[in-house]
Amino acid sequence: MLTAAILLILVANGLILVHELGHLFAAKWAGMPVQSFSVGFGPPLFAFRIGPTRYQLALVPLGGFVRIMGMRGTEEERREWPTGFAFQSLGRRICVVSAGVLANAWLAAILFAGLALTGGATVPTPARVEAVFEEDLPAQAEGWAALPRNVDIVRLGEREVKAWGEFALALLGTEAGSQLHYCRRSSHRCRRCSDALTPAHRPRPRDCARATAS
Question: Global pTM?
Answer without folding.
Answer: 0.55
